[in-house]
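Dear Dr. K.,

Following up on our conversation at the group meeting, I've run the structure prediction for RNA methyltransferase from Bosea rubneri. I'm pasting the input sequence below exactly as I used it, so you can double-check it against your construct before we proceed with anything downstream. Let me know if the numbering doesn't match what you have in your notebook.
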Amino acid sequence: MSALAMNETLTIARLGQRGDGVAETTDGQVFVPFALPGESVRAVRDGERAQVVEILTPSASRIAAICPLFTRCGGCVAQHMGEGLYAEWKRQQVVTTLGRVAAGVAVEPPLDAHGTGRRRVTFHARREEDGMRIGFMAARSHDLVAVEACPVLAPGLARAPSVAQHLANRLGGSNKPLDLQITASEAGLDVDIRGHGPAGNALRRTLTEAAERLDLARLSMHGDTVVERRAPFHVMGKAAVTPGPGGFLQATARGEELLAELVLAALPKAKRVADLFAGCGPFSFRLAERCHVTAFESDKTAVQALQRAASRAQGLKPIAAETRDLFRRPLLEHELAAFDAVVLDPPRAGAEAQVRWLAGSKVPVVAYVSCDVGSFARDAALLLAGGYALERVTPVDQFRYSAHIELVGVFRKAAGRK
Ligand SMILES: C[S@@+](CC[C@H](N)C(=O)[O-])C[C@H]1O[C@@H](n2cnc3c(N)ncnc32)[C@H](O)[C@@H]1O
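The predicted structure tokens came back this morning:
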């Protein structure tokens, strides 16, 4: 903190996008982590940020955090918000950003997609004076907060901290910081280690032995399988899918289900659907229960996982899958003409190149699943300019207690519009 730090009373006017309380002062906005609207707080200010020293008048919406590490660990920012305040804060993030391009659009209250909790976690590990430490990064700092348990994780990850600690100890010869990504699959824990150099034979033996001892389903380094004792899998509709090591998965099983339900509800009459940015197929498999699906995805391993699972699944309509970079090679007009609905679920950057082609297409309905409201708003503006109407926006909250929010937007083009 600088020598200019001041101790003063601040009144919190609203919540910012990241969950900080925001006070309006004569010097401009001041961001106050863990303070709530309506509260008066005594705080130490440093520039445009302030730390609470004492809450003078607590908000009626303040609740007790569920985790003793809350405020130290950088993973959660919102455990102190009561349910109503929390849901409205998340909804407003969508309303505010989207309002710039689609002012009148109805944004529904967020759907709670936490379910039984997050099915994937990444622990950081690094050497400290007393040995290897595993944990999460503290907020706005390079400090590591030691974590022995995390209440937002699904029950299948209950032993993830001790697994991460054991593996970090085994890898402790390296001074490099490591990331240990652990996923709870139906066949047990699926671990991908990043940050370590390539595994030589000796290290592979050590890790294979550790996987036995920890009863892991699979252990990989940088996406390269070291040992697969049981194929990890996830049930997606009528398919059992084994994603590539470290491959993308929605954060919670409930989130994946809810997103798929919203997508399916948007296209009740579709017969031929393009699933863009399809990953290993969570939407494709559910769509294929009633329509023909063509999946496009740039990650070859994900496409192979989808194809393998499709070849084994029973009772589905045909699913074709193609490895394709949709930023560089979006589907063009004549290709889009083969579909009566398009689903897209791009990474945070959005799908500008693809959406430019979609905007000029005649595809009657587009279900856009987004993990970044900023890029969604930019892409939505292109679709609106192309003659689509944004019918509905449903925020989906898979990342409970974080500032993150996802959404499904349904766009429809009236018949006859070009
Ligand atoms: C948010 S994930 C969604 C995946 C899948 N729909 C799901 O629900 O699991 C985004 C996907 O886009 C893929 N992707 C990223 N860049 C891409 C690109 N340029 N072209 C095609 N796919 C891309 C990623 O590999 C990832 O699978």
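Two things stood out to me. The chain has three domains: 6-62, 87-114+249-413, 120-228. The pocket of S-adenosylmethionine is lined by residues 248, 250, 277-279, 282-283, 297-299, 302, 325-327, 345-347, 371 (CB under 6 Å).

Best regards,
J.T.
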